[in-house]
Amino acid sequence: MEGRKVYLAAATLRPETMYGQTNCWALPDGIYGAFEINDTDVFILTARAALNLAYQHLSRVPEKPTCLCELSGYDLIGLALKSPLAFSETLYALPMLTVLTDKGTGIVTSVPSDSPDDFMALQDLVTKPALRVKYGVKDEWVLPHKVVPINPHS
After folding, report:
1. Residue 100: CA atoms inside 13 Å, Cβ hemisphere, count?
2. Is 148 contained in some domain?
3. What residue intervals traverse the membrane (predicted)?
């Protein structure tokens, strides 16, 4: 994929929350692929999502996704990412066991301030060193994210 722009293609129904994005989630046992969108862009997502995009003219070959290589969710964990709307300069792909690969793209943006599922999954990684070890998650990928409490009396 050298010389191409590679995107971890996350789907969201709430783009207005992307300012609070702390990471992306992938299903560790999920099957993903690197699919050609055109001559320069490659999206990493599930084959089902790539097929749906191909029918929307987002495939180098119309209506036929072209997979350059297959990847597992484990391959994605730890990827350093840049999200155009996030405050953090670098985000990481982290494991989440409840990601559905038959919805969206199988890659999920994480905004713990707006999603209880995201909050709990991130807290599990923060508070359970054994979980980080199991999935090869480095401390610096999760420990800097502190919850900002909101005081209802101010």
Report:
1. 6
2. no
3. none
Please give the Cα distance from 86 to 21 (Å, whole number): 6
Euclidean distance between CA atoms 37 and 142, whole angstroms: 31
> Model confidence over 80-124: pLDDT tens digits?
999 887 888 899 999 999 999 998 999 999 888 888 899 999 999
pTM, full prediction = 0.90
Range of the domain at 130: 5-142
> 19-48 as b/e, with b when 16 or more CB fall inside 10 Å?
ebbbbbbbbbebebbbbbbeeeebbbbbbe
Question: What is the rounded radius of gyration, in angstroms, for the C-alpha atoms of the chain?
Answer: 16
What CA dihedral angle connects 47, 53, 54 and 55, to 10 degrees? Answer: 120
Note whether residue 151 is domain-resident.
no
